[in-house]
């Protein structure tokens, strides 16, 4: 049985005067432990689809199942990591990373120790009593990752989490996130505009066509790249070859500017 299954997803946004068809007949599956990316032109519905998978939006038609159950019944099984870290500025780092556990009533001493240990594994020692404003952007995103992992979600959804970072920090975080997810056996979906990021981090790339978003093509990343860290993958000859293939395919479906 597939871990995550989308069947015939369609979504239309209605206003008082118009109806905008955002997604059209999207069906796909994701295996447990797989890292996949959603790639496509701006406005093709990638983030809308992510919100539907998370159970935040009800699709106009179709269904999403996580381990055979409706995502409505699996809301606490998903975790989000966004472009903005959304840490509460008035709370310490410790208070921020414990927030999800506190809300769910699972903030036990043993769990606290596990989460603080994860914070150290992320290279963030002795920052527990700091406030977000005292950390760099990359450090804040690592804190946000710890907060997301703390509740042990089965499915992680990343909506352009590195796009606001400088290039060097972005590359380091790609490696850190990839290694962390492999270590914990997490299933993840990344929404990105960055072809290189999608190739370096993913097992598969789902390429979507312009609005209404349709699944245009699926790229399977070769094992030679999948077995490397994202930084190492970027330096492999197959990376450039695949980059050109995806680039040309994306260019062929980009809407022409008037």
| Second CATH tier, the architecture | 3-Layer(aba) Sandwich
Through-space gap between termini: 46 Å
Q: Gyration radius, to the nearest Å?
A: 19 Å
What spatial order of strands do you see in the largest sheet? 6-7-8-3-9-10
Output mean pLDDT: 89
Order of helices and strands: EEEHEEEHHHHEHEHEEHHH
Provide the domain count: 1
> How helix-rich are the residues, as a percent range?
25-40%
Helix count equals 10
Number of DSSP strand runs: 10
- Corresponding CATH superfamily: P-loop containing nucleotide triphosphate hydrolases
Overall SS class = alpha/beta
CATH first level? Alpha Beta
Protein architecture, described:
- This protein has 258 residues and is α/β, with parallel strands linked by helices.
- The chain has a single domain (4-253), classed as P-loop containing nucleotide triphosphate hydrolases (Rossmann fold, 3-Layer(aba) Sandwich), CATH 3.40.50.
- Helix content is 37%, strand content 24%.
- The chain is built from 10 helices and 10 strands.
- The chain has helices at residues 46-53, 93-97, 99-104, 109-121, 137-150, 167-184, 195-201, 223-226, 230-233, 237-253; strands at residues 4-14, 19-30, 35-39, 61-66, 69-70, 78-82, 155-159, 187-192, 204-208, 215-220.
- The strands form 2 sheets. It has a 6-stranded mixed beta sheet with strand order 6-7-8-3-9-10, with helices on both faces. A 4-stranded antiparallel beta sheet has the order 2-1-4-5, covered by helices on one side.
- Helix 4 packs antiparallel against helix 5 (137-150) and helix 7 packs across helix 10.
- The longest helix is centred in the last third of the chain and has 18 residues, at 167-184.
- It is globular, with a radius of gyration of 19 Å.
């Amino acid at each position: 049985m597939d871990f995550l299954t989308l069947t015939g997803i369609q979504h239309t946004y209605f206003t008082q005067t118009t109806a905008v068809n955002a997604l059209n007949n999207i069906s796909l599956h994701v295996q447990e432990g797989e890292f996949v990316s959603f790639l496509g032109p701006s406005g093709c519905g990638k983030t809308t689809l992510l919100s539907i998978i998370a159970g935040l939006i009800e699709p106009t038609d179709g269904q999403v199942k996580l381990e055979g159950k409706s995502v409505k019944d699996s809301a606490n099984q998903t975790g989000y990591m966004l472009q903005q870290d959304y840490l509460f500025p008035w709370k310490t780092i410790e208070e921020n990373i414990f927030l999800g556990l506190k809300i769910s009533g699972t903030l036990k001493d043993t769990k606290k120790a596990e989460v603080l240990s994860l914070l150290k594994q992320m290279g963030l020692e002795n920052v527990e009593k700091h406030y977000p404003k005292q950390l760099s952007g990359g450090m804040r995103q690592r804190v946000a990752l710890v907060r997301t992992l703390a509740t042990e979600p089965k499915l992680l959804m990343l909506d352009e989490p590195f796009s606001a970072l400088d290039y060097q920090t972005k590359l380091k975080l790609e490696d850190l996130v990839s290694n962390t997810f492999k270590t914990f056996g997490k299933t993840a979906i990344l929404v990105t505009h960055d072809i290189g990021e999608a190739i370096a981090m993913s097992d598969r790339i789902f390429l979507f066509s312009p609005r209404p978003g349709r699944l245009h093509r699926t790229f399977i990343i070769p094992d030679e790249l999948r077995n490397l860290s994202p930084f190492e993958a970027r330096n492999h000859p197959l990376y450039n070859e695949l980059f050109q293939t995806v680039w040309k395919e994306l260019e062929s479906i980009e809407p022409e500017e008037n």
